[in-house]
Amino acid sequence: MSPEEASRHKSMSSEDFVMSVNRALDFGYGPHPSSSSLDHYMEKLFSGSGHTAASTKECFEVPPRAIGLISERMAFPLSLMHSHDYVSKGLALVGDAAHTVHPLAGQGVNLGFGDAAALAKVISEGVSVGADIGDLSLLSRYENDRKAANVAMAAVLDGFQKMYSVDFGPLNVLRAAAFHGAQYISPLKRNIISYAMGDKKSPLFS
């Protein structure tokens, strides 16, 4: 939502906020998703390939209703920042200290987990050979391993944010077709999920 809408939702009463959340989860942004002509076309196109994702048969389910607040409301502005250097002697930046991405699909925390795992591996390897764990040449291996992956994911998320910020008929059709294609092609869908989890270097076939 816009910054103005976010500010209004933070300041409204708890009761009004819960009502707004439930409206958004249910009918707030249009009717419930249903099969469209594009769904039927994609299913017909890929039905004989044996690669159709099982989830394409699932119907939309209304999420459970929110009944109250249990914590303070927080707003997270869309932002994209990336540190030029991750390491210096005796210092390594990980997670949001090294990069911030748009809060879409929980990828920020996944990138942080990837950073932590890569840094732990580098430090463990250094300890095993008696190296100084703060040595720049050792820590640079962590930066070289993670920077390319983080920049790539940041670019993907920035692309999603820009793609969905434009309401233009032909672009909307292309966007819908692309996402339907990913939904109906199981190998591609699995690769995208693995990429999002940090298990693969590329969301495409490999």
TrEMBL record:
One of its GO terms (molecular function) is monooxygenase activity. It comes from the Eukaryota. Signal peptide: none annotated. SUPFAM superfamilies: FAD/NAD(P)-binding domain. Residues 71-151 form the FAD-binding domain. One of its GO terms (biological process) is xanthophyll biosynthetic process. This is FAD-binding domain-containing protein. It comes from Aegilops tauschii subsp. strangulata (Goatgrass).
